[in-house]
Design goal:
This protein is an alpha/beta fold and 438 residues long. It has two domains: 2-197 and 361-437, Ribonuclease Z/Hydroxyacylglutathione hydrolase-like (Metallo-beta-lactamase, Chain A, 4-Layer Sandwich), CATH 3.60.15.10; 202-349, Metallo-hydrolase/oxidoreductase (Rossmann fold, 3-Layer(aba) Sandwich), CATH 3.40.50.10710. The protein has helices at 51-54, 70-73, 76-83, 91-104, 173-178, 202-213, 229-241, 251-262, 300-305, 331-343, 366-376, 388-400, and strands spanning 2-4, 6-7, 13-18, 21-25, 29-31, 44-48, 60-64, 87-89, 112-114, 120-123, 126-132, 141-147, 150-154, 185-189, 220-223, 245-249, 286-290, 319-322, 347-349, 380-384, 386-387, 405-406, 414-416, 422-424, 432-437. The protein has a seven-stranded mixed β-sheet with strand order 10-11-12-13-14-20-22. It is globular. The structure holds zinc ion (ZN) (2 copies). The site of one zinc ion has 5 residues, from loops.
C-alpha cells in the first residue's frame, strides 16, 4: 500500500503487509507549490502523511531505505519519532542518514542495521534480499520481499547501465534467476516509462562532458545533482585531462564529497582545491561544480548568476554547463538563471539542447522495462514511482512483455496480492504533511 510516490513523482513511501505486520520501504520528501503564488523562491518540503502506520507503530517491523535520494530518504529523520522502528540500509545510505539524524539530535536513538549486496535479512515476517542494480547514486538496491504466501520483487529506482562509473556494472543474472522463482508481483519504477528506447550510460555523460568542456577557453561551471558521485568523479577526471583545477561550491556537494570519502567511493588521489583559491587561477584553469541545477535561490549557481558568490565571479566568455535535467515545475526558475547569465555574456549549455549528451537519467526507458519484465516474469505488474500517465505507460509495457495482470493504482490503494489478487481503491485516506516551510 503506497502512502506516497504512486500517482506522483516524489515522496515515496510504500508499505508491505503480512500476518498483522508491516514493512516500510522508503520515506522520502517532495517539494510543493510556492507558499506565495508566483514566488518560486520559497518552497515547502512535504512528505506522505504517515498517520495510518504511525497509529499502529507496534506493527511496523522495520523500515528499509533503498538508496539515498531525497525522494526516498528525505523524510525519515522527521518522521522517525512517530515510527520508532529499526532502519535497514546499506553503508553509503546509512552515512547520509546519520548526518541527517545528527541535525535533528536523533542519531543515537535510531537503530540502523547496515546490509550489503546479496544479504538476506528477516525483518519480522518478511525475508528481504538485497540485489545490486544500477541508478545514479552509489549503492542503489532492488530487493525481494518474501513471505510464506508469495515473493514481491521491489525494483526501487533503476536503469540498465553497463558502465555506471561507481559500483558494479548492471548484471542481469540475478533478475533472470527470479524468472524461475515464481515472483508474485514486481513493483517497478515508472519515471521514464513514456520514453522509448534505452537510457544512456553514465559513461556517455562523462564522454559528452569531456567533449563539451575540452574546447572551452574561459572558466567552466558545471551544475549537477550532488548525490551523483560518479558524475563528480568524472568531472574531476575531465579537470585533470583539460588542465583545470576543480572545486565544489555549495553545502550539499561538500557534504556528498565528504560522505563519498568516508565510505570509500572517493579515491584519495582525486584532489579538489579550496573554493577560495578559484579567484587566483587563470580562467582557463577553473572548473567549479555548483549546486543549484534547478534554480534554487540559496544555491551556489544562483549566487554565481547574480554575481554575489564569495569565491568566484564569472565574466563574458565563461561557460555554465547544466549536467542535469530540469525537473518539471522548475522551468521558470532555471530560465531566470539562464537569462541572468546570458545578460552578462556567460555561455549556458543546457542538457536538453546540448549537442553532446551531458546528462544521463537514472531511470529505465521502455526497452529496459521490457527486458526486466521478461527476465523476472512476475504474475502481477505494479507500476509505482510516477504520475498516472507514467504508471499507465509502464503497465502497457508490462502487458506487451507478457505480464498479463497489472494494477495501475495510486496512493491509498491496497494492492491485495494473496490469496485473491485485487486492487482495493482508496482503502485508506492519504495526504501530505509539512517537513519544513521555508
Ligand atoms: Zn533515485
Ligand atoms: Zn526516486
Amino acid at each position: 500500500m503506497p502512502l506516497g510516490g504512486t500517482g506522483e513523482i516524489g515522496m515515496n513511501l510504500n508499505l508491505y503487509g503480512h500476518h498483522g505486520q508491516w514493512l516500510m520501504v522508503d520515506c522520502g520528501i517532495t517539494f510543493d507549490e510556492p507558499l506565495v503564488p508566483g514566488d518560486d523562491q520559497r518552497f515547502r518540503v512535504l512528505c506522505a502523511d504517515p498517520s495510518f502506520i504511525a497509529g499502529q507503530k507496534e506493527n511496523l517491523a522495520g523500515i528499509v531505505i533503498t538508496h539515498a535520494h531525497e525522494d526516498h530518504i528525505g523524510a525519515l529523520a522527521h518522521l522517525w519519532p512517530r515510527l520508532q522502528a529499526p532502519v535497514y540500509t546499506t553503508p553509503f545510505t546509512a552515512e547520509v542518514l546519520r548526518r541527517k539524524l545528527a541535525q535533528t539530535g536523533l542519531s543515537v536513538r535510531v537503530p540502523i542495521i547496515e546490509v550489503d549486496a546479496g544479504d538476506s535479512v528477516a525483518v519480522g515476517v518478511f525475508n528481504i534480499t538485497w540485489l545490486p542494480i544500477t541508478h545514479s547514486i552509489p549503492e542503489p538496491f532492488a530487493m525481494t520481499i518474501a513471505t510464506p504466501v508469495g515473493t514481491v520483487f521491489h525494483t526501487a529506482d533503476w536503469k540498465i547501465d553497463p558502465d555506471p562509473g561507481i559500483g558494479q556494472r548492471f548484471n542481469s543474472k540475478a533478475f533472470e534467476q527470479l524468472g524461475s522463482q515464481n515472483i508474485l508481483a514486481m513493483v517497478c519504477d515508472s519515471t521514464n516509462a513514456l520514453k522509448a528506447g534505452h537510457s544512456i550510460s553514465e559513461k556517455c555523460a562523462y564522454e559528452g562532458l569531456r567533449e563539451t568542456i575540452a574546447p572551452l577557453t574561459g572558466r567552466v561551471v558545471v551544475t549537477c545533482f550532488a548525490s551523483n558521485v560518479a558524475r563528480l568523479l568524472a568531472l574531476a577526471t575531465i579537470a585533470r585531462q583539460t588542465g583545470r583545477y576543480m572545486a565544489v561550491l555549495g553545502r550539499s556537494l561538500e557534504n556528498m564529497v565528504s560522505i563519498a570519502r568516508v565510505t570509500g567511493y572517493w579515491p584519495q588521489d582525486v584532489e579538489l582545491i579550496d573554493p577560495s583559491h578559484l579567484g587566483y587561477l587563470p580562467k582557463e584553469e577553473v572548473l567549479a561544480v555548483a549546486t543549484g541545477s534547478q534554480g534554487e535561490s540559496r544555491a551556489a549557481l544562483h549566487r554565481l548568476a547574480y554575481d554575489n558568490h564569495f569565491a568566484l565571479n564569472l565574466d563574458g566568455g565563461d561557460t555554465v554547463v547544466f549536467s542535469a535535467m530540469v525537473i518539471p515545475g522548475n522551468e521558470q526558475s532555471v530560465e531566470r538563471l539562464v537569462r541572468q547569465f546570458e545578460q552578462r555574456n556567460v555561455n549556458v549549455i543546457l542538457s536538453e539542447s546540448s549537442t553532446h549528451p551531458i546528462h544521463s537519467s537514472g531511470h529505465p526507458c521502455k526497452d529496459e522495462l521490457k527486458a526486466m519484465y521478461q527476465w523476472v516474469r512476475p504474475q502481477i505488474a505494479i507500476p509505482v514511482h510516477g504520475e498516472a500517465e507514467h504508471i499507465e505507460a509502464n503497465a502497457r509495457v508490462a502487458r506487451l512483455s507478457g505480464v498479463n495482470k497489472h494494477f495501475a493504482g495510486r496512493n491509498g490503494d491496497l494492492y491485495q496480492l494473496a490469496p485473491q489478487p485485487m486492487l482495493k481503491r482508496q482503502a485508506i485516506k492519504t495526504g501530505r504533511v509539512i517537513v519544513q516551510a521555508e
